Amino acid sequence: MRTNQEIISSIELEYQNKRRRNEINLQKRKRKLYEQYPYLEKIDDEINMKYLSIVKDSIEEKNVNDKTYKDIDELKKQKKQYIMENNIDMSSIKMNYECNICKDTGILENNGKISRCQCYTNRYNSLVYENMNMSKLFEDCNFDKFDIEIFDDVKKIGKFTQREFMSKMRNKALSFIDNFDDKNEKSMLFYGQVGVGKSYLCLCIAEKLIKKRKNVVYESSSELFEKLARYVFSSDKTQNSDAAVFNSLVYNCDLLIIDDLGSEMTNDFVRNQIFNIVNIRTINGRKTIISSNLTQDELQERYEQRTFSRISSYYNTYKFIGRDLRMPKLKIKRL
């Protein structure tokens, strides 16, 4: 398990690498534009040289010649005219950032006060969460150790044997990961009897996306609603409290996985929470995976029509089939 300082150092390195990539990509785009329009590079070089002469004169405490400023203004006019005449798209050489608020620094400054950007806070919270809860789960539950041969390939249930079905689900899961940033990629509902691979596949997806630097929260439904209750019914609503951090992650993480929905003690609080989670995350375009041992009819009856209606509309639904393998007893081997 990493220390808090190791997590912070890791995030700082991430931000340094972001800025380095941004600068490298900008220079590549600028070089490509200059190759297409050499005169544009010539004007920019002349403007830069004029500015350098101003800096040099200032360092040497010399008076800057007014003509230098006039020359710069004239060069800028020439540049503007050249851009218009050749219909050059200058947006290609603007710096691109993952976070336009802090410009990939993770830091905000307001009236002399320094604070962390929300993107930094989200990343920190996510890494702390992963550090505490996820590492042991991924030791055996990942696609590298996903052994399709453990599933029955003799008895057909409907169109497929269990092995054929899980092979298809493995491919669908990998497609979900590859297309994760596509707004048209839907969330997913896995349902079916106990021990047929739902939770295992959820963990494989989580492990893969965390490696892609996505913020993933994985919780059993009973743990999820218990932790949310601590925040909802707590008198301490401060932003940095553990309960507040978790509540924020549930709604704002890239992927929320609710495992074994239906195993919790369902009441009005739980029904309202699951509706809010499904509804708000859907509105905000954030993806969710729900697994349950309940049937679709049981889910609809327990969590009300309004929740099930949103799941039906915005989730891809998969019914898992086959015999109960009791996933903790699986013989896992490397592919």
TrEMBL record:
GO terms for molecular function: ATP binding. InterPro entries: IstB_ATP-bd, P-loop_NTPase. Residues 128-303 form the IstB-like ATP-binding domain. GO terms for biological process: DNA replication. CDD domains: AAA. It holds the Pfam family IstB_IS21. This is IstB-like ATP-binding domain-containing protein.
